[in-house]
Specification:
The complex is a heterodimer of chains A (380) and B (294). Chain A contains 13 helices and 18 strands. Chain A is of the alpha+beta class. Chain B contains ten helices and 14 strands. Classes of the chains: A alpha+beta (380), B alpha/beta (294).
Chain lengths: 380, 294
């Protein structure tokens, strides 16, 4: 789950990482109130989960309440690459002497954590990696040992952070690593981490991705969920606990397992169709999950045919079949459903559906044939 | 011959008394797997349809001589279960649990490597392993596998593993062993481990490798294949048309180097001499053609 900048900053604060004083505002009046509280000049920043907001006019400096009204008024409601701004973050403006970059993430191939630190922050780190790779100091961190202050001190020196910034930066890195591990982040990134003319170091931005598998031990993540997605289809799927990503095509996809779901998208595409979504009902899905999945797909007006592609393992095909019938009773499904059922209890599953087969409930023996049928129906 | 497990492998099931553990444990036994015990703390002395249940892995190993464990417990308890298996003397651990936090996986993997270098973990979040006709540990439906070889299968995706088995079996092409390594961030066993084992197994004549987008395991496997693999490899990478990953930010993209796209993986594999196919059916057909030409 990706966090908004303000949520990332609030998350950082929990771990004692210094950020600029500020608060969120959903209206012009609230923005003025925050500005009065934190003191001028302030920066007003659009809260969207997409890059390039500065270029789109989503970040503005304001020195008076009149300027706050003007800029907040413009930014709220702004469309940044299809993301409408509903909320701004208003914080005290910081003078910047130097901009650094730091992040922690998992180094998958080496199965350790990877820290990246650079004295050249404030620009896209991909560009630095491309043009001047030596400017990034990489640190492999053994998950069993973590990052202590001594190692962090050595690291900031290696990365050639300014002398006056080093001790504060080292302490901040230890806290950020703690936020990354104890806070169960897939990614914790600060760009830029700044040094002010007064020689203080703090985070000016926050990019945090949380590992949803760890949500069982983070009740505090509940508040992030409410703002997670704006796509109404994704919201509905989320409420039903489904792994769903909305797309623009006409064939609704339901599959079990992320691999098979991706493969289903591939095959639909190869036979001339377009997928309306990615939906993985996961392992061990029962009738209720299947019924919910069909409801979510049914709510998408672009869908013209539904392709249910199940290869039972931990998921039992008879449960899937029951779910399909249950969904048909619960809601009126407006598109024809093409099913391909194999694997655990497939014989039982097919037998359950057999008496109900019709022009709108079709089974096909293979994945390719089912894809062709669904695409033909969607394109008809 | 087979890799990792065969007809002599004795298996215990951690979580046998739970709903999933019972269903799949019994199903594995019905397949012919030597399921010799179960482990559930506090339920020692009970039995599940004749399979004795022990309080700890240590007790179970002492009583049965098991060397493999099948872990079917919720994500919260899985890391401890994995460590308990290793500490109890198990050398081959299959963990199917889905939803373990990545940080827990990283810690568990590194503890295993450091404290129990001889122990192999398969998974987590994988379908398990099947040596057709001999041993099935996990959630794969045994009836879709065909004994006798000559194809070895290794896959990152659960359901695509079944698809691969199915595509070959229906054409009469058997499998030596089929390994589902799982798609989690920190898999205990990776492509290269399996490719090396298949290369060394005289009965395996060709290998089917199923990958997916994200990470760089396929690229690393391609490098390994180029210099070490003499047997033909057929591959399919899922996700060529999937939406761009929304999971990882900038830092992740840099580490993976090639950004983990299906195209980058397919290019790397093709450059290593692998037969790259565009969907599971095509991969199955290609493999049939290769096996018939052997």
């Amino acid at each position: 789950m990706d966090l908004f900048e303000y949520q990332g900053k609030q998350y950082f604060s929990r771990y004692g990482i210094a950020v600029s004083p500020g608060d969120i505002a959903d209206t012009v009046e609230e923005a003025v109130a925050v500005a009065e509280r934190v003191g001028y000049p302030v920066v007003i920043k659009a809260q969207v989960k997409v890059g390039g907001r500065g270029k789109a006019g989503g970040v503005q400096l304001a020195s008076t309440s009149e300027e706050v009204k003007f800029h907040a008024g413009n930014i709220l409601g702004l469309d940044i690459k299809g993301h409408i701004v509903h909320r701004v973050w208003v914080e005290r403006s910081s003078d910047i002497a130097k901009e650094y970059y730091v992040s922690f993430t998992l180094d998958r191939p080496n199965k350790v954590h990877l820290g990246m630190l650079s004295a050249q922050g404030g620009v896209e780190i991909e560009v630095v990696a491309e043009e001047n790779p030596d400017a990034i100091s990489f640190l492999s961190i053994d998950p069993l040992r973590g990052l202590d202050l001594a190692a962090a001190r050595k690291w900031v020196d290696e990365a050639q952070l300014d002398e006056v910034a080093q001790e504060q930066a080292a302490q901040l890195l230890v806290k950020l690593y703690e936020c990354y591990t104890k806070g169960d982040c897939d990614l914790a990134e600060i760009n830029p981490l700044i040094l002010t003319p007064e020689n203080t170091v703090h985070a000016l931005d926050a990019k945090v991705t949380l590992d949803e598998n760890a949500s069982f031990r983070h009740p505090e993540w509940e508040e992030f969920r409410a703002t997670e997605t704006e796509d109404p289809r994704e919201k509905m799927a989320k409420e039903k606990g489904l792994n769903y990503i909305g797309l623009d095509g006409t064939v609704g996809i339901i599959a079990n397992g992320a691999g098979l779901a991706m493969s289903t998208l591939d095959v639909v595409n190869q036979v001339g169709g377009t997928a309306a979504n990615f939906l993985d009902i996961g392992g061990g899905a029962n009738a209720d999950v299947m019924a919910s999945a069909l409801e979510v797909i049914n709510a998408d007006p672009k869908v013209k045919a539904i392709f249910v592609n199940i290869f039972g393992g931990i998921t039992r095909v008879d449960e899937v079949a029951k779910g399909v019938l249950e969904a048909l009773q619960r809601v009126s499904i407006s598109s024809p459903i093409v099913l391909r059922l194999d694997g655990t209890n497939a014989v039982e599953g097919r037998a359950i559906l057999a008496p109900h087969e019709s022009d709108t409930l079709i089974t096909e023996p293979t994945m390719l044939e089912a894809a062709r049928r669904a695409v033909a129906l969607a394109n008809a | 011959m087979a890799i990792f497990v065969d007809k002599n492998t004795k298996v215990i099931v951690q979580g046998l008394t739970g709903g999933q553990g019972r269903f799949h444990g019994l199903r594995n036994r019905d397949y012919g797997t030597k399921i010799v015990g179960g482990v559930t703390p506090g339920k020692g002395g009970e039995n599940v349809e004749g399979i004795p249940v022990y309080n700890s892995v240590k007790e179970a190993v002492a009583a049965t001589g098991a060397t493999a464990s099948f872990i079917v417990v919720p994500p919260k308890f899985a890391p401890a279960a994995i460590m308990e298996a290793a500490e109890g003397g198990i050398t081959f651990i299959v963990c199917i649990t889905e939803g373990i936090p990545a940080h827990d996986e990283a810690v568990t993997y590194n503890r295993l490597v450091e404290e129990f270098p001889g122990v192999r973990l398969l998974g987590p979040n994988c379908p398990g392993i099947i040596t057709p006709g001999q041993c099935n540990i996990g959630i794969t439906s045994g009836d879709i596998a065909l004994p006798g070889g000559p194809v070895g299968i290794v896959s990152r995706s659960g359901t695509l593993t079944y698809q691969a088995l199915h595509e070959l079996s229906k054409q009469g092409i058997g499998q030596t062993t089929c390994v589902g390594i799982g798609g989690d961030p920190v898999p205990g066993t990776n492509f290269i481990d399996c490719l090396a084992a298949f290369e060394a197994d005289p009965e395996t004549k060709a290998v089917m490798m199923i990958g997916e987008i994200g990470g760089s395991e396929e690229e690393r496997a391609a490098e390994w294949i180029k210099t070490n693999m003499t047997k033909p490899v057929v591959s399919y990478i899922a996700g060529g048309t999937a939406p761009a990953g929304r999971k990882m930010g900038h830092a992740g993209a840099i580490i993976s180097g090639s950004k983990g796209t299906a195209q980058a993986k397919m290019d790397a594999l093709a450059a290593a001499g692998v037969h790259v196919c565009l969907n599971p059916t095509e991969a199955g057909e290609k493999m049939v053609e290769i096996v018939r030409g052997l």
